[in-house]
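Hey, can you fold this?
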Amino acid sequence: MKYFVEQSSIVRKIWGKSDTILFIFAGAAGEFALNKAVDWLYYTGKLPSDPLGRLFSTVKYARMIVFATEEEANKAITAMRKIHTAVEQSRGEAIPDWAYRDVLFMLIHYSIAAHELLESPLSEKEKAEVYDVFYRVGIGMGLQELPVDYSHWLPVRESHLQENLKKSHFTTDLFSQYKKHLGAFRFRLLLESQKIVCPKKVLSLLDFHTVSLLQPIIPLYKFGKQFKADVFVKHILLPKQYKAQIKELDVA
């Protein structure tokens, strides 16, 4: 049986831990709020009405691909493309190809950043492995102009950050929705998490000028994971209605 991602791959390790995944989407939540194409998710109304639900929906597809057989993964990729095509047909215009690439680029960047924050630095080979997995996802979705490998991706990623982000009323509203659905304390944790994993361009546009309050706590958290203390921390900090779903993110 052939898997889309090899069972020994670093990508499986990254996407097999709930805390890593939560940091991936904390960062992506900040960056996507700045994306010039964020109005597409406002068109459907699903993102502002249920941002956490959208998070778990995206997680479901990403994990389905990472841990599935090649056949199952390709079916999931096709299903994602069909969902977006239906939205495009409803609106009467196409989502820009660069917007699709931006989302793919976020998954690559934050997968690497989250793992290096909570686990250990990745080698260039492992970073290339992360890129290759999402590159194949992009090809499966029919995306154009994807860099051929990780080294060619780096300058393109930087170019996208400079060209495709801006702070708008969508940004302000989306962060208001995050606060509404998370509550003040968890919302603050979201912001502090973003300060650690988001690129400088994102931090500048979001007016984050201070060092994250979580920075000195991360080493203690990593140490506590050896004794399963992270389970207790997540039990306290995470929204009750999502605890079961978050627990399922951990792959033994």
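Oh, and this one too while you're at it.
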Amino acid sequence: MSKILIENQKLSIEDIVNVARFNFKVKLGDSAKERINTARAVVDKFVAEGKVSYGITTGFGKFSDVVISKEETNDLQRNLIISHACGVGEPFAEEIVRAMMVLRVNSLTKGNSGIRLLTVEKLIELLNKEVHPVIPEKGSLGASGDLAPLSHMVLTMLGLGEAFYKGERMDSVKALELAGIEPLPYLTSKEGLALINGTQAMTAVGVLTIYDALNLSKIADIAGALTMEALTGIKCALDPRVHKVRGHSGQIDTAKNLLNLIDGSKMITKQGDLRVQDAYALRCMPQIHGASKDALRFIKEKIEIEVNAVTDNPLIFPETEESISAGNFHGQPMALPLDYMGIALAELANVSERRLERLVNPALSNGLPAFLTKFGGVHSGFMIVQYSAASVVSENKVLAHPASVDSIPSSANQEDHVSMGTIAGRKAREIMKNARHVIAMEILGACQAIDLREENFLGRGTEIAYNFIREDVKFVNEDVVMYKYINKCYELISNKEMIDRVEEVVGELL
């Protein structure tokens, strides 16, 4: 059974994806357990001495000046969870919930949270036995962390709320019983806050989205290369010298990818063969795709930092026996990159739709039949495929408006600036799905156009991609129920299989 050991190392985005999507098990190493226990001892000392410390012996938010007695500690933590579980809307996908759970575990093992080892192990047990709390998508301000979503996660640990088990939604107590898990009988000092005061909902969405986005940026290059061949594009604009003198790595890498993909193609031309230059959607692919790739690389770096961050409050520093109330729960370091990711992905979709328009428009397609059908008039061909793509990219323009520029004060203005980072993440994920749909439609159109050229001598990489699509999606000779073709192509590019096949031939796509 594949496992992720949480010890002293930093977890990678791939580690989180393996737990979230492929049900890798999670195990704590001895040093992680030691860190948890050491920090917990400090919290127990504070409680025993009656030391005033935020969230340990006081209330929360605006109630931070209310001192809580030792006898009320357990009630304080339980009440925190049940009162904060205020999420609304549809549940997060189970893969996002699993990512949230492992991210929270990883944060708690750093030794700055003061939670009991027993409580961390209970969260791991739920994860490993695939009991997934029902966590509504909406309700987080992204500071103080993702309070509402993470509270729903903790409800299931206590045998409250709802959970999914083996694909069925049910009361948590039933899910725990079926999985052979005893609910956690209580939370004690600091634990409720340690579990919910963090950025793990927005980060979970961000981890899965950046992983998919980086793969989609490679698919976008493949789609663009196929369209370039279908439109007898000019390869001179891909000359490495052009991109070296500007210097942006994403641009340089994209030009290299495209040249590798079309290497050996008989459908590609040079400037002056048929025309002097191509339109921007072809000629500027390195600049457009490359800018999005540079953005995605920056975003990946920021998300990798947050994956391994301690984001609750207060923080425990065992070496000096201090508890410091600060602001690591604030989602701004994620909110801005997640908004940026939405914009970067929207642009990949924008230029893809413009290439699709050139494929279907007889005034722009360099000799292809209108709407990629031999029987125009009786048949509409790919006419409405482009409509659908245009609709989706227009929706992306609305979704790409940044969430992070908004803030609504909360907790009687004690929390007077919030990040809206979880909204930014959810929007970026929706934009990613929309962009994947548009690129799937472009690939369908490009393969159709290549077949209509009849003499389709493709490049080394594009031939692999074309054959991969044609294994499941055939040439459209006459009008068909088109959405099934679109959905199938979307499915085919939703994992790494096509990328892997292409990379076996042309080397790693950048």
